[in-house]
Amino acid sequence: MACVSCRKQKRKCNKALPACALCERMNRHCDYSDASPAPTSEEFNALSMKVIELESRLNGNHSMISPPTTYRTPSSTAISAPDSLGAGGPSYNHPQDYAWQGLQNKFPAIAVLDKETFKDGGYGYLISQYQGYLKYPYIAFAAKDVLEHLGDGNSVTAIANEYFATVHLWMPIVSQKRLMVDMRNPHWEAGPDFALLLLCMKLIISRPPDSIESYQTLIYVSAKRFIAMAEASGTVSLFVLQAGLLITWYEYGQAIYPAAWMSAGWCVRYGNLLGINGHSETLELLGRPSTWTELEERRRTWWGVLITDKIVSIGSQGHILTNQEPNADTPLPVNDSAWEQGELSLAVQRLVSNPLSDAVEPFPRLCQASILVGKVLNHHHGTPIPSDVLKFGLANQLYIEISILARKLNEEAENTQDFLSLTAPLSLTYSTLCVLCEEYSCPAGSITSSPEAAEMQIKAIDGLKTVAGSIVAFADRISLATQNPQDLDRLSPIIMECMYTAAANYAWLVRESGDESYQIALDSLRHCLRKFGTRWRNAAEYLRILEAKEFTYAVGSAAS
């Protein structure tokens, strides 16, 4: 009889006494008892997986060894042998798909299928039970790669600190105070949604290596896979929405399309599901906030959703209009300092209807700029305006309103010691002006041959020239403020769109007039995009598009 160790490892045993040769060489106890050791949990799980795999292989091979029908018709396949009922194609699953087999989804479908019955029928207890349902059997297996990305406690703290020192400055949607307090609490049990948020924090602060594409990085693949599993399991959590926003910003900043476009839409839908969009008829799946800080965090996260959806759409001008736009009584985010400290007494609350001249901090300014983006997109793509005169008049009013915000932001930029904090709202304001003017600057567009239309075209072209000049000065100032490579980490990817638009206009002006000043401006913008492209690859993509435009213009000029 072979010893227990050799039987377990399926090794050849020489059965020597008092110890076999292998055990003696390994300096371990040699046991010749008859009792078989009880299988460990790891062995049992491995055996179960093997059984599932073998059954899947057999089911898949069954269809291959069955004699095929010469001509398969609906009538011939309607009745099949008892042993082939429900048989389809091969059902073998790759080992990495086992995590999906362990998913559990306890989300009450009635909450979406019939909201009124759910609310009126007293099913709210389901939500109260569901809100604590954050830990699933799949987490230990599915999050293995996530835990490898996050590392130990010191690594997690370093990730959070870097995130709040960089990305948080232009997209402050996660409460730093709440997060740090929870992480320091020894009795706080973090769920998988929190691990997902930390993973996406690390994703957004990372720079993809030059040797691989942005969508091929392991951390991006893990984040996309993990958030898909959270969705499939019915997870309802503010952390998941915040993680989805960070994924979307990574995709937008690294020019991963159409993923960025689709992810932005997902955030809108998920925010509606959570009930944080401010509509009274939505379900409050998250429950009522326990603190003012938590209420403000939800409000900021929804503003982040609205901003992200517009910015991702602004380049293509394919924004899908919805009824999600804030109204005049919608509160803007309060000042960051009060929220971060959790001091309600220091909070300065403004509404959407407040004048743009009122002093607010950078994130509320970004919200105001996004509101103007929505107005311009609705002006261009919303309900058709019957009269050109009326349409041009509304366009002029929009131009004046956006220009007021641009001047106010420039005044604040001159008086602040942290210019980079205002670059996101200022760049979005410039982009909005460009989107408004471009619609009326090209004769091949919607402009008619009326005198009013001709006058509007001249105004639009002059407006583009004025905005382009402001963008050149804006880009040069950013370049001066980012002398160190680490400074680029504080830049938002939002700023690239306006620089590209201005550069494209200058490339057209160089072709039309050959003015050397236009060429100098174009070269300056190209230099800035090349510099910022080391942090956000959408800048490099804009450069490639710009070079293609210039080549097309050069070929066209030579041919003519």
UniProtKB/TrEMBL annotation:
It comes from the Eukaryota. GO terms for biological process: DNA-templated transcription. Residues 2-32 form the Zn(2)-C6 fungal-type domain. Gene3D superfamilies: Zn(2)-C6 fungal-type DNA-binding domain. GO terms for molecular function: DNA binding; DNA-binding transcription factor activity, RNA polymerase II-specific; zinc ion binding. GO terms for cellular component: nucleus. It is found in: Nucleus. Keywords: Metal-binding, Nucleus, Transcription, Transcription regulation. This is Transcription factor BOA15. It comes from Hyphodiscus hymeniophilus. The lineage of its organism: Eukaryota, Fungi, Dikarya, Ascomycota, Pezizomycotina.
